[in-house]
Amino acid sequence: MNARDFTEVTELAGQQSRFRVLIRSALAARRGDVTVEFDFHRGWNGGWRCRAMVQGKPPLDHALLSTHAGALLALPVPFPTGWRARGVSDSAGTAWTVDDEGLPTRVY
Predict the structure, then answer these.
(1) Which of 2, 28, 49, 53 could anchor a disulfide with 37, C-beta 3.0 to 4.6 Å?
(2) Domain membership of residue 95 as a residue range
């Protein structure tokens, strides 16, 4: 799978809770049990994004994507360097990172 196999989520209705779970899980794996505030908003191109805010840490923006197989992925933008080896999981359990050009790349 490569970057062409993703589409930006343009219809968010009913999917916020699924994206919250993905983002909260990625943050908990790296920062422990934290309280996260979410701000869903449209990006410049009409795709949905989410800003995740944890007190005492800088906010982390996410591009909200779906795969052609139907899995959802909240990809941090910019992708934190320390997260690249492990990546973040999509709703089907596949882990994703970004390559040197910032394109999604499968970890496992």
Answers:
(1) 53
(2) 3-106
Residues comprising the chain, all counted: 108
What six digits make up the tokens of 8? 């930006």
d(CA 67, CA 7): 6
The answer to whether 72 and 22 are in contact (CB under 8 A) is: yes
Q: What domain count does the chain have?
A: 1
CB 54 within 8 A of CB 80: no
Q: What is the pTM of this model?
A: 0.90
If phi > 0 it is left, if psi is from -120 to 50 it is alpha, else beta; for residue 20 that is alpha
| Number of CB atoms found within 10 A of residue 37's CB | 10
| Per-residue confidence in pLDDT tens, the chain, 108 aa | 555 688 999 999 999 999 999 999 999 999 888 899 999 999 988 899 999 999 888 999 999 999 888 999 999 999 999 999 999 999 999 999 999 888 888 896
What is the spatial distance between Cα 45 and Cα 13, in angstroms, rounded to a whole number? Answer: 18
